[in-house]
Amino acid sequence: MTIRSTRARFSGHMMAAACCVVVIAQLWSAPTTAQSPFQQSQRGLVMEPSKPLALPQDPPIVGRLLKGTAFFVDQSGYMLTARHAVEHCARIVIAKEQHRVQARIIALSAKYDLALIKVSKTLGLAAVFPRTATASANEMVFANAYDALPRMRDSGVLANSRVDHDGSEPGHLIIDSPVTHGASGAPVLDKRGLVQGVISRRTRLDRVLAVGLAETKAFLAANGVHFEQDDRPQVSPFTPSAERAASISAHVTCLTN
């Protein structure tokens, strides 16, 4: 073997080695087009932002919500409800059908569970009070929370409560009634659709106390509300009482803070 041939062979080996280095470098630097499921999940985990595992030190305080019923007593936006349903509210919201408006307190009764509140305008109809006729013992009447009225209207209920003859609560109308939460402030309607009282509280499972007619009218008059009085029926004999109640009532939400 001559020196020239040896140099030529050595040069060939060096060129081959250089080509291998270039190919390996290109393969190393080229992006991969396929990954194993494990590699994909690992990359996904790296890219996902971290989530805190601890609750805030001072979580926001959620205000207490009280829900009741109110009803319109004139065409200017005045409403009656139970005092305990609104007296400690930071904000009062009236909801009726698609309407949602804020109300303000006008007056609170010192003796009875009554509150006079006001919105910008009357939504629907205003209640009518009897001029002289008052509910008598064993008379059938109607009362319920505003939210329960659509269901009762569809079922055609004419009355769901009975006036009790018990006179142990002066200034109040005692009724045997199934009404539950949300009925505070609801009107008690007789068969003519006239307001005979305002729901206050439950005294036992099937007995409810309502502020009486005379006391309710006196409270409105003392606060300058010009409410309508009439002994004539405001509904036809077969009109569901829930329909009349829904036309004059609304849902009350009290936010305490």
From TrEMBL:
The keyword Protease applies. InterPro entries: Peptidase_S1_PA. One of its GO terms (biological process) is proteolysis. The keyword Transit peptide does not apply. Transmembrane segments: none annotated. Keywords: Hydrolase, Protease, Signal. GO terms for molecular function: peptidase activity. It comes from Hyphomicrobium album. Residues 1-34 form the signal peptide. This is Serine protease.
